[in-house]
Amino acid sequence: MSKERLLTGLQPSGALTIGNYIGGVKRLLKYQDEYDTFLFVPDMHAITVTQDPALLHKRIKELVAIYLAVGIDPKKVHLYIQSENLYHANLSWILECHSYFGEMSRMHQFKEKSKNHENFTCGLFTYPALMAADILLYDAKYVPTGADQKQHVELARNIADRFNSRYGKEYFVKPEPVIPEVGARIRDLQDPSKKMSKSTDNPKASVFMTDDEKSIRKKFASAVTDSDGKICFDEENKPGVSNLLTLYSVFTGLKIDEVVAKFQGSGYGDLKNEVANVVIDTMKPIQDKYKYYLESTEIDEALDEGREFTNKIAKEKYEIIRNVVGLGRN
Ligand code: TYM
Questions:
Q1: What is the pLDDT of residues 193-252, one digit of tens each?
Q2: Which of 47, 69, 178, 244 has CB 3.0 to 4.6 Å from 290, enough for a Cys bridge?
Q3: Residue 321 CB-half CA count within 13 A
Q4: Which helix (H) or strand (E) holds 36?
Q5: Is 272 a catalytic residue?
């Protein structure tokens, strides 16, 4: 029996945080053996906000080096760059024409990102249609992401449903979001009401996968907690401490209850120190491999192969959809 398809992507809009690692890439190590896995670089999503072109090229390569360094095996996983496959944008246009202004306006990410700008691009607004195209083009059944992307995957599901019922056949597979039970929303270390983000202005707020040992220690040491001094898991009233417990749980594989039990009687300083230790222990070997992959030819080899393979699949799907909606000659 052929394997079911699973797909995800991480934007090359900055160095990856440990939140991206947990919500977006770590889980793929398990999935790559179980599913027909597609992992791509959504570079077209990155230009919904202004980018420095030279830096964007660099970040695309760095992102693929991180994928490989984490242990993604290009023999098992189709690795590719979104913009090297023209069918993503083509299908996105068709899907935009099957989506409504109202539903796009309800997207949390758009509301959040447009809030502080007078001038935001149309691309920032229509971005979820492109994300739906990324998914629907490959009949992906499962889409593992952090909690922040769930609404976008649900939109893709709704668009697929609408399209299928309008044209009377299951043209698109309805994708399912796969959100981790623990670590779906790693929080900003300085403001635990927010998610940890790649594009933060506060250098102490996010821990990046490529941070050195000293800065990881410093960032955790200055993480915001609370004043009652008790170690217990309560995301609503103790978001900072709960975030640290979550990180310890995800990085060690211990359950939250076990982590809470382990730190009974300890102070916040011990907890912060231990979290820094497990993050450093996990990131150090990844960072070493990352340096190796950045200099290797393996990135281009994997991407060339991925481009060939995914272009064929995408073309087939796109041609069917183009014809169904009545575009061109049939
Ligand atoms: P992006 O690049 O913002 O984030 C990459 C992945 O990391 C997850 N994530 C988090 N998980 C836990 N805690 C956090 N603080 C945290 N911050 C981010 C995200 O949920 C994501 O899984 N639109 C997507 C990229 C994309 C995509 C797709 C994903 C484009 N097309 C198709 C899946 C399928 C994005 O901006 O992710």
A1: 999 999 888 999 999 999 999 999 999 999 999 999 999 999 999 999 999 999 999 999
A2: 69
A3: 28
A4: strand 36-41
A5: no
Q: Measure the CA–CA gap between 252 and 95, rounded to whole angstroms.
A: 41
Distance 227 CA to ligand 1 centre (A): 32
Beta bridge partners of 187: 195
Going by CA atoms, what residue is nearest to atom 27 of ligand 1? 9
For residue 308, what pLDDT is reported? 98
**For 145-160, what is the mean pLDDT?**
98
Q: Which of 76, 141, 150, 198 is catalytic?
A: 198
With residues binned 3-state (H G I as helix, E B as strand, rest as coil), the percentages for the chain, rounded to 5, are 55, 10, 35
Is 198 in the active site?
A: yes
User: Is 113 tagged catalytic?
Assistant: yes
Q: To which H or E segment does residue 62 belong?
A: helix 53-70
Kind and range of the H or E run holding 39 = strand 36-41
Tell me what the mean pLDDT of segment 17-30 comes to.
96
Q: What is the pLDDT of residue 330?
A: 79
Listing DSSP states for 82-115 in one string gives GGG-THHHHHHHHHHTTS-HHHHHT-HHHHHHHH
Does ligand 1 lie within 6 Å of residue 135's CB atom?
yes
C-alpha 147/C-alpha 179 separation (Å) is 6
- Which position has the token pair 């076990």? 258
Q: Is the dihedral of CA 141, 142, 145, 150 positive or negative?
A: positive
